[in-house]
Design goal:
By secondary structure, the protein is α/β, with parallel strands linked by helices. It contains 13 helices and eight strands. Strand 4, helix 5 and strand 5 form a beta-alpha-beta unit. The protein is globular, with a radius of gyration of 20 Å.
């Protein structure tokens, strides 16, 4: 029998994951607060039906929402998913959340006989659509086994980081520290280059072949060069994710001043009204402060 799953959250990452599961031959129900996304997914082969109608037949629920509050609402809110799943079903939780929250979700799911895989993801919307994500996962052997077909359909690399929830989310915090800082540093380097008379395209061309490069420079600088801030990953993500990093650091008695500085830049971007734009738009904060005109923003 084909695996029967539900994907909650059909944003840029969740939609690609749902598509990958469809292509792997699964019956996939897509749920999102934006009805047009659900309608589009159904047109592309998604299975119809309300959650109440399909819940008892589901083998897995994949949660690809924004934050811990949304994860908890999907799983344990009014008419939450966990209360309707059959014993032995698995929740694959992909949002970036605090490690302690992931542990709590695992405990509450276990009380209902539901497996919980702490499985935050990385790779962006393009890799999500290709089934080539990196997954930082932790959970019981049973949780991994129950989620294995979904992992195979959506991931290029699965890092098995422990036999209880929390380790996956802790590793995702490390990743987000680096990713968030690297995007802010990309913006700083590109705009600094402009103050020295170097066009952003030249910065990318040269630095991508030098020791100063990073994946985020090579991926995000083209957005600045083209002046296209269509969101693949929104500015709004970073105050939340870097906030998780700093909360965990504080709990560990660890000082993270570079993360604090990057977080301040993203908060400034949000205050400028850029929260819904691609996170490369943090370059606009630097440009505004330096009186620079970025490519594609000329009046």
């Amino acid at each position: 029998m084909s695996m029967n799953i539900a994907v909650f959250g059909l944003g840029s990452m969740g939609y690609g994951m749902a598509q990958s599961c469809l292509q792997a031959g699964m019956n996939v129900h897509g749920f999102d607060l934006v009805p047009d996304r659900v309608a589009r997914f159904v047109e592309e082969g998604g299975t119809t039906g309300t959650f109440a109608e399909v819940a008892s037949s589901l083998d897995a629920v994949v949660v690809v929402v924004l934050n811990a509050a949304q994860v908890e609402h999907v799983l344990f809110g009014d008419d939450g998913a966990v209360a309707h799943l059959h014993q032995g079903a698995v929740v694959k939780a992909c949002a970036t959340v605090p490690p302690e929250f992931a542990k709590e979700m695992e405990r509450r799911c276990a009380e209902r006989g539901i497996h919980y895989l702490d499985a935050p993801i990385s790779g962006g919307s393009v890799k999500a659509a290709k089934g080539q994500l990196g997954v930082m996962a932790s959970g019981s052997a049973s949780a991994f086994a129950a989620a294995e077909p979904i992992l195979e359909a959506t991931a290029e690399t699965v890092f098995r980081l422990g036999d209880t929830a929390g380790a996956g989310s802790a590793m995702k915090a490390v990743n987000q520290l680096l990713a968030g800082v690297h995007i802010a540093t990309m913006a700083e380097a590109v705009t600094f280059g402009m103050t020295q008379g170097i066009h952003p395209n030249t910065v990318l061309e040269v630095i991508s072949k030098c020791a100063g490069t990073s994946w985020m420079l090579e991926n995000r600088a083209p957005h600045v060069i083209s002046g296209d801030y269509t969101p693949h990953s929104q500015v709004n993500i970073w105050p939340k994710d870097l906030g998780i990093v700093l909360e965990a650091a504080q709990a560990a008695g660890f000082d993270a001043p570079i993360t604090e500085t990057a977080l301040a830049r993203y908060r400034e971007a949000v205050e400028m009204g850029l929260g819904g734009e691609d996170d490369a738009a943090v370059a606009k904060v630097y440009a505004a402060q330096a009186g620079l005109t970025l490519p594609g923003t000329e009046s």
